[in-house]
Amino acid sequence: MLDLIGAIAGMTAVAINLVAFTGVLPGSLARRLILAAIGGAWVGLASGLGAAGKLAFSPQQPVPLVGVLFAVPLLVAGLLALRSSKVRSAFMAIPLPLLIALNGLRVLGVLFLLLAAAGRLSGPFPYSAGLGDIITGALAIPLALSVARSQKLPAAAVMRWNIFGTLDLLVAIGLGITSAAGSPLQFIHVGVGSEAMQHLPFSLVPTVLVPFYLITHGIIAAQLRDRRAVRPPIVVRPVRAGV
From CA 205, how far away is CA 155, in angstroms rounded? Predict the structure, then answer.
């Protein structure tokens, strides 16, 4: 039952993120369709490898494919943003409330806790990842509404939420790798560890959803930085003698 729920929840989250993200990007319809096709192909690749059992850590596979699929989207997005002004402009044009609101789907992190209760995840990983995602997701919607409605951006609140959401993902990645049986970096030996995340439907989390959300956090941080940079300078009026 958890696999069925996970499959429905995971593919729903992927679909919503892909449609919403590509739908608001500036540019022609053809470009957005091409980007959507690339995203769909990536999800298909990740799903196919997960179904074939190729994402599991194994001594015969020195470079874990799950790590490759996690890293490639981040590297591609980062390199394109650094080398292409058009890509940077496109990222900066994505509405900030949308970037925050998409993280609301992370309340589905409750599935980590359910998997732990069923004995399919163990150790600190499911509790850190699950509770961190639930908190990030629960705060995302009211924060997005506040940003959309406020005339003045609550930059400090957005920054704190963005840092927390980013650290939640990074800590979950670290705990997942170090508690995965067969991982060359494993030093947390707690039964099944994070094994469920190496197989469908939950392998979509490290290969698709986590990279996507890290990219959204990076774009949010860049938008906050740019908004600070364009603040109008403070004009200091000279004080007249005798006044």
Answer: 29
The β-bridge partners of 61 are 58
Separation CA 80–CA 219 (nearest Å): 13
**Number of helices and strands (H, E) in the chain?**
10, 0
Quickly state the pLDDT bin for 188 (edges 50, 70, 90).
confident
Q: How far is CA 243 from CA 93, 238, 239, in A?
A: 47, 11, 7
Q: What is the pLDDT of residues 123-168, one digit of tens each?
A: 999 999 999 999 999 999 999 999 999 888 888 999 999 999 999 9
Residue spans of the domains in the chain: they are: 2-229
How many of the other CB atoms lie within 10 Å of CB of 179? 26
Q: Which DSSP string corresponds to 162-176?
A: HHHHHHHHHHHHHHH
Q: Which residues contact 49 (CB under 8 A, 6 or more apart)?
A: 55, 65, 69, 203, 207
Torsion angles phi and psi, residue 61, rounded to 5? -125, 85
- Give the integer Cα–Cα distance in Å for 36 and 21: 9
State how far the Cα of 46 lies from the Cα of 33, in Å rounded to an integer: 20
Q: Residue 195: count other Cβ atoms within 10 Å of its Cβ.
A: 19
State whether residue 152 is helix, strand or coil.
coil
Percent of the chain with pLDDT over 90: 56
